Amino acid sequence: MKKAIVQLLIVFAILYGLLHLFIILGPQEAAVKYAEADIEVPRAPADAKMVSNPLPKTPEVITQGKEIFHGKGSCYVCHGENGKGDGPAGLELNPRPRNFTNPRFHEIRTDGELFWVIKNGSANTRMISFVPSMITEEEAWAVIRYVRTLSVPNPPTASKLPGNS
Q1: Number of H helices, E strands in the chain
Q2: pLDDT, tens digit, for every residue of 104-144?
Q3: What b/e string do you get for 136-157 counting C-beta neighbours within 10 Å, with b at 16 or more?
Q4: Judgement on whether residues 55 and 23 belong to the same structural domain of the protein
């Protein structure tokens, strides 16, 4: 009888320890632990800042960029369907993929810098080179035109959404 009680206490202690571990390592912690890399830190060399996007800012180019982002380029896998950095593969990356809905990011990063990262990858992140292995240079420029449309200048707060007072 004493042996059974001791075994039961050991099993209980192990289960309690596992439960505690799951609580500590749960999804709430991952969201806090894995943050996007600092947008103020450039990922491209200074000369990339001066490179201009050769493609016009037209609905056709933006649509092409969107199709590449969600298709051939598979950008959405890490950056998410809406570019928030919350794609299925991106949730486990540290640092998290770039959030393209952040207006501040678009203020301080040029098209040339974005192109350089798409072409060369980004050190200390899981962003690999996509040009020319997955997409062409022209397709990369189109993706940048699309990504620029994802910025949300003033996202509504819950109280400002329809149906809330």
Answers
A1: 7, 0
A2: 999 999 999 999 999 999 999 999 999 999 999 999 999 99
A3: eeebbbbbbbbbbebbeeeeee
A4: no
75-111 burial: b if 16+ Cβ within 10 Å, else e: bbebbbeebbbbbeebbebebbbbbbbbeebbeebbb
Structural domain range at position 10: 1-33
Same domain, 98 and 151: yes
Residue 142 resides in a domain: yes
Residues facing 96 on adjacent strands: 36
Cβ partners under 8 Å of residue 93, min gap 6: 34, 78, 125, 126
pLDDT digits (tens, 9 = 90+) for 73-105: 999 999 999 999 999 998 889 999 999 999 999
Q: Three-state SS for 130?
A: coil
b/e string for 20-46 if b means 16 or more Cβ within 10 A? eeeeeeeeeeeeeeeebbebeebbbee
